[in-house]
Amino acid sequence: ATGKQVAVLRGHKRGLNSAAFSPDGARVVTASEDKTARLWDTATGKQITILRGHEGSLTSVAFSPNDLLLVTGSRDRDIKVWEADTGQEVQKLRGHSAKVRAVAFSPDGQWLVSGSHDTTIRIWRAATGHEVETLYGHSRPVTSVVFSPDGQWLASGGWDRTIRLWDLQTGRTSKMLLGHRLGIASLTISPDGRWLASGGEKGEVKLWNLATGQEVHHYVGLLNSVTSVAFSPDSSMLAAGSLGVRILVWNRKTAEVVRKLEYESISYNSVAFSPRGQWLALGNRDLQLWLKAI
């Protein structure tokens, strides 16, 4: 499919660092350098609400599994939880001593995880905002954290070039995936739970078999540092954005490029598939929604 741009969501004053669809696909949320997150209706492209309250630029955003809450991470070192419908702040989570780079909800919605430039990963109880555990192991800033689909373990990556798989029962690293030559910026786990993709500096994009911990593919085509990687809902495609002007979508199994989007002098800090796979969202300053992008 050639794909076509169906909407451009405009409103942020500065560039986007993160975007996430609601689990039902009806809304998309964006997190920006302008210190706000904005919630949008995917059907109309209209802005629903603005989340204001962070004192620094926003680095990451995620929906809760039940669509009701949002979590944001910021350079101000805080994590905030918001009501998605009203945009009201309901929790402020403090504990990190440096920029919060990544946030995520567990699949059951009971836990939040955050990764920070202070090199730690922290687990929080979503209902109360209380910190329950700090995970130590990375030697440099943590840039990405993601839960497994079953919620039993966690993957993290960072500037120390390592990917760590954490057993959440013990709080210990159960496996390390080594192979990146430079820092890692983004991780994503396939919805079927079998694969992990990682993106890093100098265009490195890798696929890992989670059962064996082995590197399966090294995807080529991006020359600049990768900012975001995302699997399609059926786990068959992998998309990546970069600091260059190119977004690529590969066939996960064959590593063949199936879609290439190129722009002049724009970097893309966020890529995200909608839950049913009909849209691919690309974030720079605006958020572009592409229909049948693959």
Report the uncertain regions: none
Helix content: under 10%
Structural class: mainly beta
Strand element count: 28
Rg from Cα: 17 Å
Sheet with most strands: 4 strands, antiparallel
Distance from N terminus to C terminus (CA atoms, Å) equals: 6 Å
The percentage of residues in β strands lies in over 45%
Number of helices: 0
Q: Mean pLDDT score, rounded?
A: 93
Shape: globular
- For the biggest β-sheet, the strand order reads 1-28-27-26
Following the backbone from N to C, one meets helices and strands in this order, namely: EEEEEEEEEEEEEEEEEEEEEEEEEEEE
Summarize the structure.
The chain is an all-beta fold and 294 residues long. 0% of the residues lie in helices and 54% in strands. It has strands spanning 4-9, 16-21, 27-32, 37-41, 47-51, 58-63, 69-74, 79-83, 89-93, 100-105, 111-116, 121-125, 131-135, 142-147, 153-158, 162-167, 172-178, 184-189, 195-200, 205-209, 214-219, 226-231, 237-242, 246-251, 257-262, 270-273, 279-283, 287-291.
Describe the structure.
There is one protein chain. The protein is mostly beta strands and 294 residues long. It is built from no helices and 28 strands. A four-stranded antiparallel β-sheet has the order 1-28-27-26, with no helix packed on it. It has a four-stranded antiparallel β-sheet with strand order 2-3-4-5, with no helix packed on it. The mean pLDDT is 93.
